[in-house]
Amino acid sequence: MPVIAEVTVVPLGTGSPSLSRYVADCHQLLREAEGIRYQLTPMSTVIEGELDRVVEVVRKMHEAPFTAGALRVSTTIRIDDRRDKPLSMEGKVRAVEERFM
């Protein structure tokens, strides 16, 4: 069953307050990853896939800023792993929206 993870990768020691190039590098890894769905949000990225694949791609995302010259990287991960019924990004949003209708 897929899990949903929220990931925030923050490069530190970059010499610039702008992080968009680092975010773009991480999203290139997501585009190339098989078995992964993702959604960019203004503050983080939501990833859906099998747990092992999600953890694997998050590790690559964590390493990407180092490759691009960052001196320090802080990565935060939250994983929603529900095993009693199927889980999807759309399903989680729909469950909340249905409460308003």
TrEMBL record:
<dbReference type="Pfam" id="PF01910">
    <property type="entry name" value="Thiamine_BP"/>
</dbReference>
<protein>
    <recommendedName>
        <fullName>Thiamine-binding protein domain-containing protein</fullName>
    </recommendedName>
</protein>
<dbReference type="InterPro" id="IPR029756">
    <property type="entry name" value="MTH1187/YkoF-like"/>
</dbReference>
<feature type="domain" description="Thiamine-binding protein">
    <location>
        <begin position="5"/>
        <end position="97"/>
    </location>
</feature>
<dbReference type="GO" id="GO:0005829">
    <property type="term" value="C:cytosol"/>
</dbReference>
<dbReference type="InterPro" id="IPR002767">
    <property type="entry name" value="Thiamine_BP"/>
</dbReference>
<comment type="similarity">
    <text>Belongs to the UPF0045 family.</text>
</comment>
<dbReference type="InterPro" id="IPR051614">
    <property type="entry name" value="UPF0045_domain"/>
</dbReference>
